[in-house]
Design goal:
The protein has helices at 2-18, 22-33, 38-44, 53-90, 109-122, 137-140, 172-182, 224-239, 292-297, 314-322, 335-339; strands spanning 127-128, 134-136, 165-167, 188-197, 209-219, 245-252, 255-264, 281-290, 306-312. It has 345 residues and is an alpha+beta fold. A seven-stranded mixed beta sheet has the order 1-4-5-9-8-7-6, with helices on both faces. A two-stranded antiparallel ribbon has the order 2-3. Helix 2 (22-33) packs antiparallel against helix 4. The longest helix is centred in the first third of the chain and has 38 residues, at 53-90. The two termini are 82 Å apart. The protein binds adenosine-5'-[phenylalaninyl-phosphate]. Adenosine-5'-[phenylalaninyl-phosphate] binds at residues 156, 170, 172, 198, 200, 206-207, 210, 212, 214, 252, 255, 258, 283-288, 309-313, 315-316, 327. GO terms for molecular function: ATP binding; catalytic activity, acting on a protein; magnesium ion binding; phenylalanine-tRNA ligase activity; transferase activity; tRNA binding. Keywords: Aminoacyl-tRNA synthetase, ATP-binding, Cytoplasm, Ligase, Magnesium, Metal-binding, Nucleotide-binding, Protein biosynthesis.
């Protein structure tokens, strides 16, 4: 029996030393020390021993069991440490590798141009005002010296929702709303960016939905030369000092006198092409001195206060600045077009 116990100890220690992982080690524990294991079997035969031999054999069996247990524990510690090493090696991060580029979205070119124009005017002391896109006929037309039935209403073909409500055809109603809020008090110096809607036929320079930025300045002693100077600074900052600019006399019922501003076409260098319809020029804004009727309707004393206003089309400005040949590119969301204005790729 003594020999059998020694044999089992040697066999177990050998297998423990060779155990490759924690599962194998546990199988060995169960095989040698479990209830159905060989050591238990040997101990079951102790009843046949003499009273003298029994305690000696019991002590030896305990020794063998302890030796196997402590060896299993030691091997378990070794195997656990090796497993941690392996995991650490597999999860090692090389912090010196270059980062993967993140694909970020970009602002739409129109948003960028609107923000650029806003910054330019904010730099000249203007604040930004906003108004509703679904507008009352009163603010869109009547308060701007365009009573019902006025022929100049045809200049801006409108989308009516009811007889009194329409999609605004320009950003000028924000002028009327701002003046009304100020209750006849100056000075006023605002720009108003936003979407506008007209029943225009879509072509290279016209869209039925587009954006405008309105400007309004009211104070004592505001003159046409102030408007001219402001538009000149704007155009030079936007397009560069070398681009040609012209002001033409025009007509708007809410300004008197009225002008329109054209910029030489970048696509053809002013020689005439399909973008500028052969004229060499593209109109970017309408402007003028605020009509005394408009000032009076909003509660201003037109003998004391004068003002200028302008309304520009950011799409046309972006086309001229970047050489874009068709306004429809802004709305068709062709990723190849939009990517050209990306700041991250
Ligand atoms: C107006 O809308 C006036 N409210 C502008 C104004 C404001 C005049 C204040 C005087 C004082 P007009 O219809 O010309 O004017 O439009 C102004 C600008 O909007 C044009 O110069 C052009 O740049 C742009 N625009 C007009 N129609 C379209 C269109 N269908 N598609 C794209 N841009 C357009």
């Amino acid at each position: 029996m003594q020999e059998r116990l020694k044999e089992l100890q040697a066999e177990a220690l050998d297998k423990i030393a060779q155990a490759a992982d924690l599962k194998e080690l546990n199988d060995i524990r169960v095989a040698f020390l479990g209830k159905k294991g060989p050591i238990t079997e040997v101990l079951k035969g102790m009843g046949k021993l003499s009273a003298e031999e029994r305690p000696k054999m019991g002590a030896l069996a305990n020794e063998v069991r302890d030796a196997i247990s402590s060896q299993i524990e030691a091997r378990q510690t070794e195997l656990e440490a090796a497993a941690v090493e392996l995991k650490l090696a597999a999860e090692k991060i090389d912090v010196t590798l270059p980062g993967r580029p993140v694909k970020a979205g970009n602002h739409h070119p129109l948003t960028r141009i609107i923000e650029e124009i806003e910054d330019l005017f904010i730099g000249m002391g203007y604040t930004v005002a906003e108004g509703p896109e679904v507008e009352q006929d009163y603010y869109n037309f009547e308060a701007l010296n365009l009573p019902k039935g006025h022929p100049a209403r045809d200049m801006q073909d409108s989308f009516y929702i009811t007889e009194e409500i329409l999609l605004r055809t320009h950003t000028s109603p924000v002028q009327a709303r701002t003046m009304e809020k100020r209750q006849g008090k100056g000075p006023v110096k605002i720009i108003c960016p936003g979407k506008v809607y007209r029943r225009d036929n879509d072509d290279a320079t016209h869209s039925h939905q587009f954006t405008q930025i309105e400007g309004l300045v009211i104070d004592e002693n505001i003159r046409l030369s102030d408007l001219k100077g402001t538009l000149d600074v704007f155009a030079k900052k936007m397009f560069g000092a070398d681009r040609e600019i012209r002001l033409r006399p025009s007509f708007f019922p809410f300004t008197e006198p009225s002008v329109e501003m054209d910029i030489s076409c970048k696509m053809c260098g002013g020689h005439g092409c399909s973008t500028c319809k052969g004229t060499g020029w593209i109109e970017i804004l309408g402007a003028g001195m605020v009509h005394p009727n408009v000032l009076e309707m909003a509660g201003y004393d037109s003998k004391r206060y004068t003002g200028f206003a302008f309304g520009m089309g950011p799409e046309r400005i972006a086309m001229l600045k970047y050489g874009i040949d068709d306004i429809r590119h802004f709305y068709t969301n062709d990723i190849r077009f939009l990517k050209q204005f990306s700041v991250t790729e």
